[in-house]
Amino acid sequence: MSTKTHFNSESPILEVKNLQTAFEIDGELHNAVDNVSFNVKPKQIIGVVGESGCGKSVMSLSVMKLLPKGIGSIRGGEVIFEGKNIENLSDKDMNKIRGKDVSMIFQEPMTSLNPVFTIGYQLQETLFNHMAITKKEARLKSISLLKSVGISRPEKIIDEYPHQLSGGMRQRVMIAIAIACQPKLLIADEPTTALDVTVQAQILDLLRDIQEINNMAIILITHDLGVVAEMCDEVIVMYAGKIVERTDVDTLFHNPKHPYTELLMGAIPKMDEDVEVLSSIEGIVPSLKNMPKIGCRFANRCPKAMPECKSISPLLAETEAGHEVSCLLYESSMPNEGANVR
Questions:
Q1: Residues 71-106: pLDDT tens digits?
Q2: CA distances from 318 to 244, 272, 306, 315 (A)
Q3: CA 285 remoteness from chain centre
Q4: Which residues on neighbouring strands pair with residue 21, listed in sequence order?
Q5: pLDDT score recorded for residue 271
Q6: CB count, 10 Å around CB of 271?
């Protein structure tokens, strides 16, 4: 389990305050991310976990200001990077930040890389956008970047196309593009999805090495708690667009409090147990159109639910130092009597 101590007293590089991101469905706006708040400090690795549909990727696209236009929008709250509210930035100003100061590794490299351009062209495009650099210098730097992410024969690979590479190599190319300008913050959205276990371990080792060399902060989005244990300092657990638990990685694994977190932990296969059927969480994450208006959004699936869980919305509150939970089981997270907190 992670024993790193990246926490520091520096000002946050990223502040997300009461973020609400909505999508329009049948003429109505529905929040996919609902009042989410967190900070990321320099050199810190924060894990964001939860099932598919919990809002993890939408939150990251909101930070990058890459929501699909005309469909998704930031409805409320603020995303502040190095003191600047990204909502106030023009597309031109955002493009200066995106790829240079904040970069993202997308979930599926085969769809993120352009199939009609060479690896070298796509790497050099990032360099030309943010650096005063010649074609010769860009090619040499691209070769160096490919080598730095563990790609052998970079002089040849640079002239090949994405379909000619394996999944692991494509993911390494995505990482090379993301770190080309040495960003201060890297968002990695499921960076090991669809890779075999050996390649997953290599990619995680690579990310950790790059993070330590470049002193980057990382937001690591994943559904794999094993990855969280290996990589992260702090963990945010999301469910149905909200944060339900947030604490440091060691506390989360030794003392999970929210019933959803406990069930996620229970679904992890254990090497010392021989069982035929793995634990699972019954039911599914509610869709945006069917999101409960009041009450705990996990109540219908929660084995510890009480009658009031369907009528009172819990607050995310500190139950112990540095450990925040959104659950009526904990007195400190109970709203004032008679209040319904959305």
A1: 999 999 999 999 999 999 999 999 999 999 999 998
A2: 11, 34, 21, 10
A3: 18
A4: 33, 74
A5: 67
A6: 5
pTM of the model as a whole: 0.89
CA distance 185 to 189: 13
Mean pLDDT of the chain: 89
Sign of the C-alpha dihedral computed for residues 57, 230, 262 and 235 taken in this order: negative
Q: What are phi and psi of 244, to 5 degrees?
A: -105, -20
Q: Where are the alpha helices (DSSP H) in the chain?
A: 56-64, 91-97, 109-112, 119-130, 135-148, 154-157, 167-179, 197-214, 225-231, 249-254, 259-266
CA distance linking residue 48 with residue 58, whole number of Å? 12
Say which residue the tokens 């990482």 belong to. Answer: 175
What is the four-CA torsion angle of 273, 277, 279, 285, rounded to 10 degrees? Answer: 150
How far apart CA 200 and CA 149 sit, in angstroms, is: 14
d(CA 111, CA 223): 20
Lookup result for tokens 């993911």: 171
Find all residues with CB under 8 Å of 93, minimum gap 6, and list them: none
| Closest alpha carbon to 142 in 121, 111, 160, 163 | 121
Cβ–Cβ under 8 Å, residues 48 and 109? no
Q: What is the DSSP string of 161-218?
A: -GGGS-HHHHHHHHHHHHHTT--SEEEEESTTTT--HHHHHHHHHHHHHHHHHHT-EE
The number of residues in the chain equals 342
Would you give the DSSP letter of residue 93?
Answer: H
Q: Is 332 exposed, middle or buried (0-12, 13-18, 19+ CB in 10 A)?
A: exposed
In the predicted model, is pLDDT for residue 334 greater than 70?
no
* Residue 118 amino acid letter: T
Q: What crossing angle do the helices spanning 119-130 and 135-148 adopt, rounded to 10°?
A: 110
